[in-house]
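Example 3.
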Amino acid sequence: MAKPQALIEQVRSSVAVEFERRHAPTLIADRKAAKAARHKAKHHKYTKAAFFRYCYYDPAFKFFCEQVLDVDYLPLPEATRAYGEVGVQNSSDYVCTPFKHILGDFAEALDLGADILVQFGGPCRLGYYGELQESILRDMGYDFIMLNFAHGIQLGYLGWAKEVLKTVNPNVDVPHGVVKLKAVAKMIEHLDTLRDYYLANAGFEVERGVFDAAWVSAMDAMRTCLDERDINQAYREAMAAFRAIPLHKPADPIRIGVVGEMFTAIDGRSNLDLDQKLIRMGVEVHRMLNFTNRYLRYNEPNLRVGAKDYLTYDMGPTSTLTVAAARKYAAEGFDGVIHAKSAGCTPEIDCIPVLQKVSEDYHMPILYLTYDSQTSDTGLDTRLEAFYDMLAMKKEKNK
Amino acid sequence: MLQATDWADVKVVGIPRALLFYRFGVLWTTFFESIGRTVVVSDPTDKAIADEGDHLSVDECCLASKVFVGHVESLVGRCDAVFVPCYPTGEPRTGFCTKFQSATDMVRNTFRDQKLRVISCEVSNARKMKDVRRAFESMAQRMGVGPKDARAAFKAAWDAQRAHDDALADAQERTLRRIDEERKAAKAAAAAGEDARFPLGILVVAHPYITHDPYLSSAVIDSLTDMGATVVYADAMDHERSYKKSFDFSGTMPWLINRELIGAILLAQDRIDGIVLISAFPCGPDSMTDDAIMRCIQGTPILNLMIDAQSGTAGVETRVESFVDILRFQQKGGYVHG
């Protein structure tokens, strides 16, 4: 009789046997390639930049490339399964899921003609994404340069700006760039405010689809902005359009807070459109986690004060935000919280014991969602519906 | 403002024998003993501890973290407080996995209902003596120890740790030298047409809390030694040299221990015959660095093993055996060239 799957002893192992050194023992691009790249960069030969797909920030990325770096921006089309596979196949099995998504995006961008890739840095594994992806893509045969924000962070702000921005454009106009960088920050704030309004109200529109149409045109308006004035103008118009949408919102709707990891909790492609799914159920969604709160206004020690019953130290890149937000939602009487993260995200896994205590103390249910590249859409639907039903019943009982 | 001395009544300090204990354990125990506390280190890992940790942890945690929680549990009731330090990732090139940053609060919340007391300190840069000292001194202050005593205790602890590390590094260096000599002798014998027996040096690359925890790694290490291989531990090699060397491999790698491991590989590669990577499933940093090592380090065969609570010893042994066979075959003339 065949053994059940669980009993078959599984040892994950792999062997690399290569007696000749074909690859330089380093992730850093070999000297010749690096020299050629430097030469081309010096003459500003690389001109088409691409970011990976990330939430709704694409207008800000576009503005950053065109106005700060002074290079063209290559927008990516809707995500496809094929490039997702490229990402999965070329990364190690159990690296966190965003890595695979981003690698697929980069491969796609390079196929579409990009020659500059932009990658962020961060305090967790994210800080190592850039270098590893650059090496993997080079081994795949692509030629490009990467603007990796993780380089030069040990040099302080100025050193970082010099090291990083000049990689792409040696003639980058720093004072001009600073002014435009301020505008980028403004745009991010506006995008987040718009999104917050959308999440809180789109579930209650009288006519289906009006909010989505307004959202699309707001994004289009943001994409065509050239300076801070345009950005403010676009924001005012979009907000006015949002507010003009008729709503039938009950006095006490079901409110759910979304917390979790920076990528998966926000990005629609990674969390299989969690926002949309919740909105379609008629839920008021709140999400403290966004660029504005994590970067522009992030003051970790002060944020931790709000959650000091649970936290002594900063537990990880977004952990304080996760716990503080969950506690805030609980204290404000939200019906439930959804914790979304990618498979293997260590800092967010470590938040779970803390969130369990928050949930216990405030009697508020928390749904824990882990996404990997195989997570199915229907499976998610079922779980969300069950969660919604539970919250609705609880609300009915407590009336 | 007078600093609170709310930990002054902690007389017996429990230290879990897991995670960074294998790296900084000498420092920790010497420090607490020097300020007059009794130290209880939890027993070596066994199945009961691992199972208990598995039971108390979130499913997705890595094996090493589950074992750690099991050790903390085994200390409940055996000490006044458990010492769980926080090693943040603030420094971009000498950080740790976020696990070590969140350990304190993870333990506090997991064991909240048992009213387990946790004492801790926050070390911002583990490579800088003054940074570490500041953290330990302020902890000593909360334990009611005067600044002078705290400083003396820290000095003793730092020196003890350094002496311990140096001794380990020397041992690795001696082993490497022995392999070199044996290889030279074997070459001479082969040239003279005699029956030559080549040594088989294997560099075991894993976090210290994997390599030196027999429950986790003995299956691998024992079968290596049983097959006549000489084992060199990458994590025990000279930390300073390894760390500096690692910048040849990667500019942005954020983790101190992984840096030391990769640096050790680069330093020792020409003196050993094979590399065995061991990681605990699913280790975050290793998921990225092991892939990079497998792709970029060539010229030496590499076996990458992932251990997991379910993996038994038989499966591991088979893999190690076939890997050693590859190496022996290569020594006898091999697959390529002559």
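Chain B touches chain A through 71 residues (CB under 8 Å). Chain B is about 55% helix and 10% strand.
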